[in-house]
Amino acid sequence: MWQVSIATGAEGEEAVSQLLERTFRQSPSVFRDEKTGGIVVTSYPKRLPQAKRALGEALKLGLAGLRQFGLDPGPGRISIQPLPRRNWSQSWKRHFKPIDIQGKLLLKPSWSRRRPLPGQKVVILDPGLSFGTGHHPTTLYCLQQLVRCRKPGTAQSCLDVGTGSGILAIAAAKLGYDPVVAFDCDPESLRVSRQNVKRNKVKIRLGRGELGRMPRWARQRYDFVCANLACDLLLADVEVLRRVLKPGGKMAVAGILGREFAKIRQRFGESNLTFEKTGVNKEWKSGRIAHLPAASASHSRPAVKH
User: Fold this and answer.
1) Exposed, middle or buried: residue 20 (CB in 10 Å: 0-12, 13-18, 19+)?
2) Diameter of the chain measured on Cα atoms
3) FRET label pair with 176: which of 19, 27, 71, 118, CA 20 to 30 Å apart?
4) What band does 55 get if pLDDT is binned at 50, 70 and 90?
5) What is the pLDDT of residues 150-198, one digit of tens each?
6) Residue 59 near residue 17, CB atoms below 8 Å
């Protein structure tokens, strides 16, 4: 097994992740240094697609291409080294610790011995070669909103768009949302999410699809929608998101850099989707949206809470 890493920054995280995903045909992992704010995107291929030196040159060309398109990949330091599997496993154990969401939800890897609080729901999630463990600020925000918007004893449906490792859909099912529907366009992400769904013994309608071309089996309205997506996707498909959210429903919108948020707020407002709460975590800004019925939207506009 090999460890191929590229040091980057917040602006280049998504583009560098896509570069490694295209190179190795697997979802990379993202590590963040809480002290320095540095970001390292890493893939763990079983074998290299070409000689080590040639691969390094190819990745350098890829980073240069990102700069030509106006994207800043940050430091762009490339590391390629062999990694015994036992070291890879221990690396994951050092990086992924249990996460407590308001005492209602506990996310932990299978090797953790941490016990849940009375009544607390548990999500078991081993990251494997995929991302999506709950530590990323945008994923964490969506988890918090799933907990805050759950009304015990009330039927609430949930849609998770671009489910990745399945973490948000699984958390929703554990909290009592039903039905829970999730889709992703990446076959590797679906493979990992299906494993996680099976491990957690939850009922989720899961399949392949993308927001711009909503799968027929997912076309309904939901009480809660998780839209942890890149800014360009949110802007392009805001009308699709509006159509799948019930009037009076809530939507967690994340994956947005702070400097991108103003245009997101404006575009969603034009579609009668009102931000009732926002949150900032490092360079990321996320929000909870309320889909107001047309009558109430025209007479009132709730203040945004920070």
Assistant:
1) buried
2) 64
3) 27
4) very high
5) 999 999 999 999 988 899 999 999 999 999 999 998 887 888 889 899 9
6) no
- Poorest-confidence range of 12-16, 56-60, 133-137? 133-137
HEC per residue, 53-122: HHHHHHHHHHHHHHHHCCCCCCCCCEEEEECCHHHHHHHHHHHCCCEEECCCEEEECCCCCCCCCCCCEE
Domain boundaries, position 219: 130-299
Phi and psi (nearest 5°) for 296? Answer: -70, -30
Q: 222 to each of 42, 93, 181, 239, 297, how far by Cα in Å?
A: 35, 36, 9, 14, 19
Token pair 């711009």 is found at: 212
Instruction: Give the strand pairing for 2-8 and 78-82.
Output: antiparallel
Q: How many domains does the chain have?
A: 2
Q: Is 185 within 8 Å of 161 (Cβ atoms)?
A: no
What is the DSSP secondary-structure string of 132-168? -SS-SHHHHHHHHHHHHH--TTS---EEEES-TTSHH
Predicted local distance difference test score (pLDDT) of residue 51: 92
Looking at the fold, whether 65 and 195 belong to one and the same domain comes out as no
